[in-house]
Amino acid sequence: MAALRRIGRNAVFKTLTELVGRALSFIFYVALARWLGEEALGAFSLLYSVGAVAVFLVDPGLNLLLIREAPRDEGYLARTAGVALAAKLALCAACVAAAAGHGLAAGYPPAMVALFALMGAQMAAFALAEYAGALFQARQSMEHETLALGAGKIAVTGAAVLTLMLGGGLAATLLVMTAAQILAAAGALWWAARRGVPLLPRWNGAQAARLLRAAAPLGVVTFFTIAFYRLDVIVAPLLGVGFGPLGHYSAGVKILDVALAAPTLMMAAAFPTLSAMAGAGRGAFRAAANRAVAGVAAAGVAAGAVIWALSDPLVTLLYGPAFAPAAESLRWLAAAAAVMFARHALISVLLLDGRQGSAALFTGLAGALNLALNTALIPPMGVTGMAQAKLYTDVALSLAALAMWVRGRP
User: Fold this and answer.
1) What tens digit of pLDDT does each residue of 273-298 get?
2) 378 and 235 in contact (C-beta within 8 Å)?
3) d(CA 1, CA 284)
4) What does the alpha-carbon distance between residue 407 and residue 101 come to, in Å, rounded to a whole number?
5) CA 397 to chain CA mean position, Å
6) Which of 50, 200, 259, 370 has the fewest CB atoms within 10 Å, counting from its CB?
7) Rg of the Cα trace of the chain?
8) Nearest CA to 274 among 214, 347, 353, 346?
9) CA distances from 71 to 137, 177, 216, 279, 280 (A)
């Protein structure tokens, strides 16, 4: 019962954090679509997708490692938090370079390359704020994570929407968001330090290397999961999809993003407690993990059914009549949602069970499959092919993860 109470308490505050973050992000997307139109939304979605992949360089699994290990080792954060922060600060430049490098390699004009670099900086700052949140998760102090990340998200989104209201274009809006995100990250880290986490950056090359090696399998899983979710938007312009249709597709994906808050917060709330149970004994852990997977999968079926049934009125009500073509791809994305919930839960329990190698292999193969499917389906079907590729990829990944979980650890 104590474990269930901890999970329930964590769930309440994690729900607040996720709902605030995703609701504000959704409000920004709707504002961007209505003020600047579908082409601006498509361009921003491309920039964000590249940034979301590049930000892996700032967090190559370190957040998840700390969340997993701290509940099992009381002194873990005291030994590692400052070293991890120093490593992340050093890696921020790599995130900016990777985002700008994609723009150069893909042949975008200089102004667009500058926007890629700006998005890389914003995502790097966001990763630092998320690190503060991860430290609170590791200590099962979700209420402090809610305060730190929620306040930052309100400030960043508020500044961005205000810029749009004052007539700012995409570049001005992104510049304001980046500046606000840097301030928000600094505030979140300050708050984490105030709550007793030793956060003075401390460079220790040997210890940083050990942390990165331990985090690498977890980071690979995270990277490939994000990559195959964002890959379609990144490759679509290279396969002839214009920013207008890409904006329609992105409108549907944003609705899916809101729904995906459910499995994210459910598993994030359960993760520290399940991690402690996994370290104590397999029987109770597997029973609790099975209940978590079943609950998340059932929520996915319900969410997918609702999105599918309301696809047409959703896109026109939220984004306006110009986005009506988004409804077709949204129906395919609704079917994918039912599978994504279960996939998220299954990958999480594999990580908790020490089978991150298998999870990394599966997600890596899923990324390759998604790239192949998008390359085959986008030219003849456009954004509908992108949505179908997402569904087929998640079905394959979920079945592989389920088979591995049922099989049990050797």
Assistant:
1) 787 777 666 777 888 888 888 989 99
2) yes
3) 12
4) 42
5) 17
6) 200
7) 20
8) 353
9) 10, 34, 20, 10, 11
Please provide the DSSP assignment of 126-153 as one string.
HHHHHHHHHHHHHTT-HHHHHHHHHHHH
Short-list 284, 280, 409, 290, CA closest to 348 = 290
Show the DSSP H helices in 37-107 as ranges: 38-54, 62-69, 76-105
Q: Report CA dihedral (238, 36, 258, 315) to the nearest 10 degrees.
A: -90
Sign, CA torsion 245/250/255/259: positive
* Residue 307 CB contacts under 8 Å (≥ 6 apart), including other chains: 255, 256, 259, 314, 330, 333, 334, 337
What are 263's two structure tokens?
């499995």
Q: Cα–Cα distance between 143 and 195 in angstroms, integer? A: 12
Give 360-406 pLDDT, tens digit per residue: 788 888 889 999 999 999 999 999 999 999 999 999 999 999 999 98
CA angle in degrees (0–180, nearest 5) for 286-219-113: 145
d(CA 213, CA 216): 5
HEC string of 360-405?
A: HHHHHHHHHHHHHHHHHHHHHHCHHHHHHHHHHHHHHHHHHHHHHH
Q: Is the pTM of this model over 0.70?
A: yes
Question: How many of the other CB atoms lie within 10 Å of CB of 308?
Answer: 16
- Tell me which residue has tokens 């209505």: 34
Helix (H, G, I), strand (E, B) or coil at 177: helix
Q: How far apart are CA 410 and CA 274, in angstroms?
A: 20
Tell me how far apart the alpha carbons of residues 52 and 360 are, in angstroms, rounded to a whole number. Answer: 18
Q: 320, 243, 312, 242: which is closest to 33 by C-alpha?
A: 320
What φ, ψ does residue 331 adopt, rounded to 5°? Answer: -65, -40
User: Which residues contact residue 90 at a Cβ distance below 8 angstroms, ignoring those fewer than 6 apart?
Assistant: none
Q: Which amino acid, residue 96?
A: V
Nearest to 64 by CA among 226, 217, 225: 217
Q: Which two tokens stand for residue 167?
A: 């007539």
Q: Determine the distance from the C-alpha atom of residue 252 to the mean position of all C-alpha atoms in its chain, rounded to a whole number.
A: 16
Q: Is 14 exposed, middle or buried (0-12, 13-18, 19+ CB in 10 A)?
A: buried
Is the model's pLDDT at 99 over the cut of 80? yes
Tokens for 172, please give them. 């001005």
